[in-house]
Amino acid sequence: MSPSPEPSRAPRRVGSARLVVAGLALAAVAGTAVWLTRDRTASASPQGGATAKAGSTEGGLVVPAGSTAGSPFGGGASAAIVLPALPPAARATAGEIGRLAALPPGDDAIALARRLEDTADAASLPAWREALLRSPHPAVERSAISVLARLADAETITALGEDYGRLPPEWRGRILQVLEQATRPEALDGLVHIVEADTGEKRSALAMSALHGLAHLGTMDSTDYLLQQVRSSNIDHALMALGRVSSRQGVEMTRAAAAGSRGFEGLEAGVRQALLRSAAAAEGQLARP
């Protein structure tokens, strides 16, 4: 009697710890991110993969073989690549994002995108962050920007700041949009961290977007931070950001500083005038329908 065939073995670690996943029938169009939850042993990869314990059901984003322009992995990927495993609370969202990526443009895709955005919560943020960083699908990109701008806290904002330099240049605008449109007050410390970490002589696009994000928050704390920057070497960029403050409270704080409120008594006349111009610009934006 011939021996029974050997049972299949788990994939072995190859090269720079990249996992090649064989036998997966990827139904998505090439370049479209597919989200799968499968039992596997995974180890860190140069593309940012995370470690998943053997026997677990932790799954991650799978980028199909042959991903081309716009893929953070460049063109001509030879096989599917397993990316970071997601927390349990984010896996259902990941599956729904995969459904959105597989739908053709139309009413069904619009309806699903709206539902996903409306039901997104803090627990789903890891799935949306991965979608922002990995998916070349336009509808997924738009929804990810919308959700992250609305829900990202300081930890998520800081992580996106670290992700920025790892993305190809044509994808970095995604992160800039999230920073500039931030609306959750808890994003404050993350935006400040990005500004403070930029010590170059010329402010980077990332730091400028963080400053604009602080203006968009429009809270007392975020406006106060921008006003404090007026008394530093960052004055020009701070004045530009103050011209975008998104709240009446922020406008009045800017005007009060120009009038010499506590802590701003010694400002030069030219700086006071510049603050008044910033307040007027911000108020003009608030008056727009």
TrEMBL record:
Highest taxon in the source lineage: Bacteria
Protein name: HEAT repeat domain-containing protein
Species annotation: Sphaerotilus sulfidivorans
Lineage, uppermost ranks: Bacteria, Pseudomonadati, Pseudomonadota, Betaproteobacteria, Burkholderiales
